[in-house]
Amino acid sequence: MKRIFTTPGVHPYDEVLWERRDVVMTNWRDGSINFEQRGVEFPQSWSVNAANIVTTKYFRGAVGTPQREWSLKQLVDRVVGVYTKTAVEHGYFATEEDAEIFDHELKHALVNQIFSFNSPVWFNVGTASPQQVSACFILAVDDQMESILDWYKEEGVIFKGGSGSGVNLSRIRSSKELLSSGGTASGPVSFMRGADASAGTIKSGGATRRAAKMVVLDVDHPDIEEFIETKAREEDKVRALRDAGFDMDLGGKDIVSVQYQNANNSVRVSDEFMNAVEKGERFGLRARLTGEVIETVEAKDLFRKMAKAAWECADPGVQYDDTINDWHTSPETGRITASNPCSEYLHLDNSSCNLASINLLKFLNDDDSFDIASFVKVTELVITAMDVSITFADFPTQKIDETTRAYRQLGIGYANLGALLMATGHAYDSDGGRAVAGAITSLMTGVSYRRSAELAAVVGPYDGYARNADAHKRVMRKHSEANDGLRTIDAIDGAIHREASKQWAECLKLGDKNGYRNAQASLLAPTGTIGLMMDCDTTGIEPDLALVKFKKLVGGGSMQIVNQTIPRALRQLGYQEEQVEAIVEYIAQNSHVVDAPGLKREHYEVFDCAMGERAIAPMGHVRMMAAAQPFLSGAISKTVNLPESATIEDIEQVYMEGWKLGLKALAVYRDNCKVGQPLSVAGKKSDEKAAPAEPAVQVVEISRPTRRRMPNQRPSTTTRFTVGGAKGYMTASSYPDDGLGEVFLKMSKQGSTLAGVMDAFSVAISIGLQYGVPLETYVGKFVNMRFDPAGMTDDPDVRMAASVMDYIFRRLALDHLPYDDRAALGIFSASERSAQQRGEDPAPIHTDEVIAELATSAPIEEQPQPRPEAVAVAAPERVGSLESHQGRTADAPLCMTCGTKMRPAGSCYVCEGCGSTSGCS
């Protein structure tokens, strides 16, 4: 072992500045405190969000007892202590000094957010619980009832522990084949119902994360069309039940009647099938037991059905079977038939994936060069630690235990690629960006397998290596040849590629001599929770989600900031400090770079994001995946996002190009394709009359605005409201003839600071209204403003509010603005949202009579309150300032733990509020 960052004789903790903090988490429904631990200890450099997530999710021991962990040091000591002790006991180190270096370097890397193990390591290692270190598993199901029932049981055990699983059901006979008794088989889709119900039940039973599962079916299975259309049909069912008055909202009491919603579905396509699609040929569907063709179909028609279903509901994805197995290191043991839920881990049945991810931005030097030497050493360190973990790990079934110990599959990956590319002035969708990504991925995997060969010399190759030696060496040569073909563009990727070439050469030499310790080494996971733990701006291989984000502050609250990668990128591109400040200020106000002062148009692409004014094109995502895939043992967790306007043909093109570019797996998501999604973005007003042409020269007389004072007697409405448990009153007064002219707010005792601030704010708004400032201007500025108190309200029209200001101006808009103006701002009443969900136009319901009735109706406090359970499960209208700025929705579910809208992380989702994920990171 070699030292990387530490100093002999100095403990790594002593080189870090530590501080004490209080972690207090409030309930999103009523504002009550649901977690509190004061005086926790973290490095000063850690963000509030990272410290909160580690405290609430990873610290072990009952809160309020002496056994409860209270310092990051304790957590890291607990985990690293087991790794070091196990490595010493199993002969990994030549000397005691090597063991100390291993121990110190791991601790330094973890407390400095250089890399992180996946969540199960933090949950379990060093505790009294089973030492489970794997996040996701691949199971196997045979065409026997006993095997099918074992599948249900094994998935249940895995879900109970908060992990996920994947399975291929293609061995099960189709509904078009006969049983030995003479009856007809049920088919795999029927058995999916039972597994789906099981996953849904266990998911709601209090596990650490929602159940995640993948179901795969081969494209030549006779039931493939039924499998493809399964989830799309369920979406039709949701529409019909909602139209009939059932509660089909997210978390609604009737949503449980919808089936097949707890799994990601993927079709395993072959080269034979894809070639048939290209050539317009027919394709045979084969019996499961005999392999004979029992039906032929038009390949293009079947391919289109896949794309159409994905267009309607995002499922199924595709997995490219021949590509996957062409890169398989252990084919003599068995084919790769399935993946984990997020599709990045692909290997033998009854195996598991043990993941860790490196924070790439930590290796970017001040001069914008990449610290290659440190990256190589950290990769060696992480691979060594990951291999040690398999030695002490526990597994949920005996079969998984045997396979994992025999093949020792690892999944090293990285996070923050998108931030690294932006910081170095590379556009994500560019040849330069792809060259950097390819070079880094090649270097990481080359070092990993080289270290695996070194470990094999010390503690032996994996048990299954002997029978698979030729195949494993062949795949190593394929990786090396792909590296030789990598085309570099800039100095940064050129230097990384040169080191990668050296590492692959050494890897092949040592592998021929020693064999390899691990059947797999690398993949790219979604890095959801651990990405937040490492304070990463971007997850996995993803680009930046947006240029503006929200930062939690010590003591509560949050502030909107421009991503800190942007100033660095601007300086790297040659802009002076005053130009940087002006551009950053423009981005803070507009959330995009279009027309930013002084920014060259050729540099716009550097700041393209996953969503927003300049969203990266779908094929940009596919090409980035293709740049990294040849250098990965596994695959990539990533969803290719398409705009709502995308066509079925667009999805067909993505699936076809993914195959041609050598991807192993691919999933798509068309914006707003889900019926039950939390938000639909309001479109701009249409059919507006064109403005008359202006004269060539126009003299405009600018007059000073005059104040239109309110009469002594005026109609008013008083609204009592609750936002995140905080109560208040709002009185809104109108001119007798037209328009809002006065607002008064009360939220605290008279004489308090808050009461004074609210009085002053009310006066400022009222005077502005009376001087002619349109209400919609205020609404546009204050809606989505985010600060505490925030959360659930008692208003059926505004279920969630980002702050008191967010609620107040949504309520004022609903009460005083016409429908068209509100629609342009994305503000709708409960009845209007229901009409939209039924596919109806809400505008016709706003007749003069209805508006008059609303104007004279009782204030909100006199209206019937919604049932408590309805409030708890309703999807929020508000999803955050980010989406409002970006002009589109980051389509994602609500967090089942804290109610915050999640954000994409690979093909899964992560909650930035509490760290919960929908997948396996």
From TrEMBL:
Any idea what this protein is called? Answer: Vitamin B12-dependent ribonucleotide reductase
Membrane-spanning parts: none
Question: Per the UniProt entry, what species is this protein from, by scientific name?
Answer: Streptosporangium lutulentum
Q: Where is the Ribonucleotide reductase large subunit C-terminal domain?
A: 134-669
**Which CDD domains does the annotation name?**
RNR_II_dimer (cd02888)
Q: Does the UniProt entry include the keyword Nucleotide-binding?
A: yes
Q: Which InterPro entries match?
A: RdRp_reductase_class-2, RNR_2_N, RNR_lg_C, RNR_NrdJ/NrdZ, TSCPD_dom
Q: Which residue range or ranges hold the TSCPD domain?
A: 711-814
Reaction(s) this enzyme catalyzes, per UniProt:
a 2'-deoxyribonucleoside 5'-diphosphate + [thioredoxin]-disulfide + H2O = a ribonucleoside 5'-diphosphate + [thioredoxin]-dithiol
Keywords for the protein's UniProt record, in alphabetical order: Cobalamin, Cobalt, Disulfide bond, DNA synthesis, Nucleotide-binding, Oxidoreductase
Q: Which SUPFAM superfamilies match?
A: PFL-like glycyl radical enzymes (SSF51998)
Q: Name one GO molecular function term.
A: ribonucleoside-diphosphate reductase activity, thioredoxin disulfide as acceptor
Cofactor requirement = adenosylcob(III)alamin
Q: What is its EC number?
A: 1.17.4.1
Ribonucleotide reductase class II vitamin B12-dependent N-terminal domain residues:
23-113
Disulfide bond as UniProt keyword = yes
Q: Describe the family membership recorded for this protein in Swiss-Prot or TrEMBL.
A: Belongs to the ribonucleoside diphosphate reductase class-2 family.
Per the entry, what this protein does is: Catalyzes the reduction of ribonucleotides to deoxyribonucleotides. May function to provide a pool of deoxyribonucleotide precursors for DNA repair during oxygen limitation and/or for immediate growth after restoration of oxygen.
Q: Which NCBIfam families match?
A: NrdJ_Z, PRK06556.1
